[in-house]
Amino acid sequence: MSSSEQRPLRRRSETRRRLLAAAAELFDEQGTIRQSVETICTRAGYTRGAFYSNFGSVDDLYLALHHEQAAGVWERLLVALDTQLDSSTRDDSLDGGVERLLEALPPEREWYALRAVLLARASADTAFAQGMQLDQNPFVDELGLRFQVLAAAHGRVPIVDTALFAKAIVAAHTGAVGQAAVDSDASRTQLAAVAGVIRGLTAPAAAI
Predict the structure, then answer these.
(1) Which of 39, 48, 52, 169 qualifies as a cystine partner to 35, CB 3.0-4.6 A?
(2) Res. 172 pLDDT band, cuts 50 70 90
(3) What is the pTM of this model?
(4) Domains, in order of start, for the chain
């Protein structure tokens, strides 16, 4: 690809990045995804034409922002899991291992808050919900396999398939984080939720 061909691609990538950043700022300020295209464009410094060359609607923009933020969270979780799967850095107890995992994840309050709003929208709009389907998330099976290995390292075996195992753990964690603003002991709640789901959906290896 020539440099003249690369320049429009770089410009479009930069436009997309700034529109996503503007949406993230507006959501952080207002706690809603109900901004107009004009409001987002004004914040990003672009025209409506620039917006519609990247996104079909404000909904599409916020779904893209959610997926971008989620990918960062999943990647950090995979790295934290790899640390716990390494025998030289693994904690001796399951609770200790889960606690290390949670400590390795940054708070990402904005992502959890945005996810809560998007899930509320998805519950009332099946077409919108399709864009958030966990079954379409390429990280789910990978997370499930790693959690399966983590459980095995502590003498436990999942009693459900790996994808369901991962989705249940993610649901426990995001649910606990979602109430952190009104929970004075949020870190303990998150630990209890995640470790509890892992224990509840596994059995001692000797019993299988």
Answers:
(1) 39
(2) very high
(3) 0.76
(4) 1-56 (1.10.10.60), 58-207 (1.10.357)
